[in-house]
């Protein structure tokens, strides 16, 4: 599974479950790199990968700094940083996915069932959403590719979790 569309309700259930199980934690993130003064619109277009923007050294440095910011995590991640599920555009690195899965592996089955039943009640959020989320985390952990949490073009869906299958992202 390379992409997982999530509604706001589904993403909230996933986040609550991860927080309850210790798979997600709160950290203070570093300040975001600021667009180049006088070139704010051009900086944003370069960040979005607009094909009509020619990347000079200054824009290339901004894009690289922005990507590093979006992938930032503590040196030795113990789980996924909570801010990465609060809003689109973040990158969950393979190291974070692996750390979160390691936490999940240590959770007792009884505790896991209880937390899942609390957050994925019949008629509200399908339990399959959790299973699919775990598959995306496993895909990242096994492949080394990060997960991009991005806006969805579909009005029914809040966001999309997508494995970034691009060699440029293997070193994050």
Q: How many strands, which pairing sense, and closed or not: the largest β-sheet?
A: 4 strands, antiparallel
Please state roughly what percent of the residues sit in beta strands, choosing from under 5%, 5-15%, 15-25%, 25-35%, 35-45% or over 45%: 5-15%
Low-confidence stretches: none
Mean pLDDT: 87
Order of helices and strands: EHEHHEEHHHEE
The amount of helix comes to 40-55%
Radius of gyration: 17 Å
Count of helical regions: 6
Kindly report how far apart the N and C termini lie.
21 Å
| Counted beta strands | 6
**Sequence of strands across the biggest β-sheet:** 1-6-5-4
Q: Which structural class best describes the helix and strand composition?
A: alpha+beta
What is the approximate shape? elongated
Q: Characteristics of this structure?
A:
6 helices; four-stranded antiparallel sheet; 172 residues; 44% helix; alpha+beta
Q: Could you provide a short overview of the structure?
A:
The protein is an alpha+beta fold and 172 residues long.
